[in-house]
Write a structure and sequence with these properties.
With 415 residues, this protein is an alpha+beta fold. Helices cover 42% and strands 9% of the residues. The protein is built from 15 helices and twelve strands. Helix 6 runs antiparallel to helix 7, helix 11 packs across helix 13 and helix 13 packs across helix 15. The N and C termini lie far apart (69 Å).
């Protein structure tokens, strides 16, 4: 009798609350006992899952694997994804050379050097949002996700795209910015935000400015390289690509630090620790755990297993980020951990590694280098067990995070 395959996505462990955010037990089980194995998907199809760090890297580096979800065998993990195959793909779902060509159109905007120039804008954005949250007070518990974690990355990316100031605050609360990723952007394209990006593209075609949409208009549209829909789709991709992961990383980071009080006190005493703290938060929480999926273009061997052409592969980056062969005491949170940035798999790996990585790291460094300096007494307003999380088979996130602080322990900017 055939052994029943485990259903993927796996459910996160119920450790902290009714859902919790510890990785699924299947990750470690497979990583230790059967690191390249088969799983069952919602639609009855089967796929391979790769759980060891070295094998995940090898798979994501391989030219024999495709990121194109239109190819038969690509492993979709929920029903809404089926409609995405009919959408015009952006570079995240293309292979080279088409992937490299389209990705290069945005490359200059997201290099480490370009992001360094944006740091003052990001710091000003964080300060402004904190000012507003503090001014409104915490007579009642404040939803940190709504008041801070969501508007920070959303407002930053809107400013990069060139969204007019008067539209930013209302658009920042659109529910889609909390849930979309680069991989599912096509699944949610017929929305308010997509409509807004289409209209913004038209405005920039008529009157270009100095923003990213205008750059695409001048360098691609006016040269006949891309059409209006292509520009709009790329702008929408930039908007949603890392937004949900950043929102979740901020909220999860606050909870993780509050649960590790001694390390939080070190961060408060030395905000320069924010860089190493962010590295560890990204590894420990892996907010984008489900996006690195591929389909084989030819027969391949990964981790000693023969995989035929046309079979789906799920690269479990969350499992890779807890691989004991790479990270000593991998289940322990340690802001002093020495780790290579490239070893963190949450941004993917290989040619499709997240283009917005430098921007994401910079935003998180500014957030965690500022937040507890301004609000050193920030704390949860409910027990950890009462926190509300995303469904256990989705990317991990906190949907509501009630917090409070002591008014007498607020520090103004520059104090």
């Amino acid at each position: 009798m055939a052994t029943e395959l485990p259903q993927f996505p796996f459910k996160r462990r119920q450790v902290i609350g009714p859902i919790g955010y510890e990785p699924a037990v299947e990750n470690a089980g497979l990583r230790h006992n059967d690191p390249v194995s088969r799983v069952q998907l919602f639609d009855g199809n089967k796929a391979w899952i790769v759980t060891k760090h070295k094998d995940v890297r090898a798979a994501l580096e391989s030219d024999s694997l495709s990121a194109d979800r239109r190819i038969a065998g690509y492993p979709e993990i929920h029903k809404a994804a089926k409609t995405a195959k009919d959408q015009r793909p952006t570079f995240v779902n293309l292979d080279d050379p088409a992937h490299a060509k389209q990705r290069s159109m945005l490359e200059d905007a997201f290099t480490a050097e370009a992001v360094a120039k944006m740091r003052p804008m990001m710091q000003k954005t964080v300060d402004s949002i904190l000012d507003k949250m503090i001014e409104e007070g915490c007579e009642k518990p404040v939803d940190f996700v709504e008041k801070f974690a969501t508007p920070v990355p959303t407002q930053v990316v809107y400013k990069i795209l060139g969204v007019p100031e008067e539209d930013i605050e209302s658009l920042s609360q659109d529910s889609e910015v909390r849930t979309s990723t680069s991989r599912n952007a096509a699944e949610t394209s017929n929305t308010n935000l997509q409509d807004y990006m289409t209209k913004l593209t038209e405005k920039r075609i008529a009157k270009p400015g100095d923003d990213l949409v205008s750059k695409l208009v001048k360098e691609q549209y006016q040269q006949g390289t891309l059409g209006r829909e292509d520009i709009s789709n790329l702008a929408f991709l930039v908007l949603v690509a890392g937004n949900a992961a950043l929102i979740n990383s901020i909220a999860l980071g606050v909870v993780t630090l509050l649960q590790h009080a001694s390390q939080l006190e070190e961060l408060k005493a030395d905000p320069a620790l924010a860089s190493s703290a962010v590295k560890e938060l990204l590894r420990y929480n892996t907010a984008s755990a489900l996006n690195s999926r591929r389909v084989t273009k030819e027969d391949v061997t990964i981790g000693g297993k023969h995989i035929k052409a046309g079979e789906g592969i799920i690269c479990s980056v969350q499992s890779a980020d807890r691989d004991e062969d790479v990270f000593s005491q991998a289940d322990k949170f340690d802001i002093h951990r020495k780790q290579d940035t490239e070893d963190n798999m949450g941004f993917g790996h290989g040619t499709h590694r997240c283009q917005g990585e430098w921007l994401s790291r910079a935003e998180l460094e500014i957030v965690f280098g500022t937040l507890f300096q301004r609000l050193p007494d920030l704390r949860l307003a409910v027990p950890v067990s009462a926190l509300k999380y995303t469904p256990p088979t989705q990317n991990v996130g906190i949907t509501e995070l009630p917090v409070k602080w002591k008014a007498e322990r607020i520090y103004l900017k520059g104090s």
